[in-house]
Amino acid sequence: MNSWKLSKHNNRKTKKASLLATLAVCTTLLVHAPLASAGQPGIFVAADTYFTLDNAVFTAGSASSALQFTLKMHNGSSGSVDFNGYGVQVVDGQGNSFPAKLTSKQSARVDAGKDQSFSFIAQTAAGLSASDLKVRLFSWDSGAPSFMQTIGDLPVSTAVSGGLDPSKLMLLSMKDVDSDYSQDAFVAMRLGQSYKVTQNGTTYLYTDLYVRNTGSSNFQIPSSLLFRLKGTDSMTYSGALVSGSQETLLPNKLTKLKIRTAVPSNAESESMTLEAYYSNSAEERVLGSVPLSGMTAAVPLGSEQPYSMYGTDNGLKLNAAKAIAVKQTDGTMIQTTVNVRNDGSAILAIPDLDAAYQIGDESLGAAVQDLSVASGYISPGQTAAYTYSVVIPEGIDPNSVKLALMEASGSSGSGSSSGSSSGSSNSNNSGSSSNSNSSNSSNSNASGASGSSSNTSGSNTSANSSTTGSSNTTSTNKTSSTVSVSSYPVMMVELKGIQQSVSASQQASPYTLGSPFTLSSNGLIDKNLEISLVELHMHENEDLGYKTAIGKYKITNRGSGTLAMPNIGTELVNSSGQSFAGVKQTSTATTIMPNTSYIVSYSYLLPTNETGANLALNVIDPKSAAPNKLTIGSYQVAVQNESSDKVISFYPFEVTFHAFSIATMYKSGYVYELNLDLEVNRKETVVVDQNFSKMEFELVDSLGRVLGSQSMTFTGTSKLITGSQKVTFSDIKTEQFDNNMVINVYETIETANGPAKRLVKQLTDKPS
Fold first, then answer.
1. Which of 74, 113, 160, 566 is least crowded, fewest Cβ atoms below 10 Å from its Cβ?
2. What is the C-alpha separation between 412 and 436, in angstroms, rounded?
3. Are strands 546-557 and 597-606 parallel, antiparallel or unpaired?
């Protein structure tokens, strides 16, 4: 045993004789530490007093690693327990021990029936993982060769948050940066995404950093904590905080910081490292570093990602849904639609998003069309859409362009923080450190590992057994230097694979519904196949902030043999030149027999201000490769008005609603029964199989809530037929009877983007 440990122990021997006698009895019962509670390891020091391990943060550095953790004592006995009777160390799988330094300052005496947490940090060797480490609790024992008696070990892996790469974490002591901060003012910093964008001729790398205050009281990032990027050539580039620096960090709450760093345009961001450091006249010290590798790539079109990482998105998801390039006389117009979906459980403000298209070392600001819901808020399960457009110079391949989705500074949809405070603090975190009485200073940070130094009188890491500890918190009012920006990126999208078409100003041919298209020969559509548009209807999705158009195409085989079903592409182009790609129904037949016709449906998402009066329908050769899509036919079309009488078209069917009624029953809950008197007629002979559209009945109460839905098909044993039909809505999620029900009748088709609906009729239980 080191001499300082022996001396320290001898000085305490007399004072602790009675306590050690008690501990000696307790430790004989602790050969095996039982579980403190179901699923949580614990170390018992008495039948009703035990320790558990919480809130462990492990970071893996290149030279060393760090572990911060909280040891909680649960005193269920009838008397107080003095934590000064125990020591803590960290051990690895090879038996190597590392000193654990007590960082919190509070009373060492844990009163009867109370819980108390003690925070520690330990520097461990490089190359270790959380699964290699255990926290060891020991008591002082004058009869043991080392004067310590091991009580038990707690595995670190059970207390560390899962799913986090330790190499992307930094654990920093604010007291190392500024002596005015308290001993337990630690932050765990998790690396987020990095985005390389050009703004006003300068290339910047924006880096998200998610910061959790792992201490027990509030503070702000000190202004002397600096950040920089370091390349493989050892060149460094100073960064500045552009978001989050003014945030007060609450205990156990995650806050997103954003760092902007000017870098050379040819900088390889994947090979850079982010360093946290401080500098003064005497020294420059790097406190932690994380590599940016794997965190800088742009996402491909169609990808979805959280608005921010580690649960701070509040349920918001971003989806780069589609992008279209249309050649014009002055260049190529690019349009990109980004959907924002609320997967959370609360109503959220729609974020203020703009965009810039990145073309090499240049940046072009985008015009934005906001297709969001009008209220400015998005409900759970709801989707808002943004469409961004820009005209790029002629000769630029749209596939080489990137979209930088930008969040306006101060946007209420930022979702900058999440998590809950760990409760009232019992340590004072600001201001100067206070000295404790040497007779009461804790030896809990004397780990027994070789090479550690004694905790001497006046140490500000000790627990004070003669005090109760203040419950008040004081926020250190010091903030990191910042740079003001109007917006910063939240998503980078590669536009490789963008849909492209010829000039939108091309004169479309007049067209009559049902007449065959005259398509350019492309060798992909057999000359014996005849394609026509037989229906085009549009419906407004009030909850989703856009309109849906559904077009039905009849494909007829005029030949004498079976042919492959053509996989045509379609798009609608409005008078403003905006293009809206068609999404084909999920399943279709692969072949079509001679002298038969088959129906294929496509859905289109349109802006809410689209009237559908002057549209161009482009039929696109799906095999034409980027950069240019080949339009093989363009026609003037307009959406059809929905029927206001009893006859509804579901081409090739016509359905007549002669009568209906809604009955209500109560069978362990309300049951609504819709009785229909229908007439179903097939107007033309076309193939209708299980892939054909369905008729959906949606039960809606007087508050606009959907209580249930049922679908019926035009094929199969339970198909819609002429005569009486009964539709039952059971398992209604309401306890109240409502006599003002509305039945929305839809035609639905299944697409790769989910079901597309067309509202064809509304039925009320009080028909006029």
1. 113
2. 45
3. antiparallel
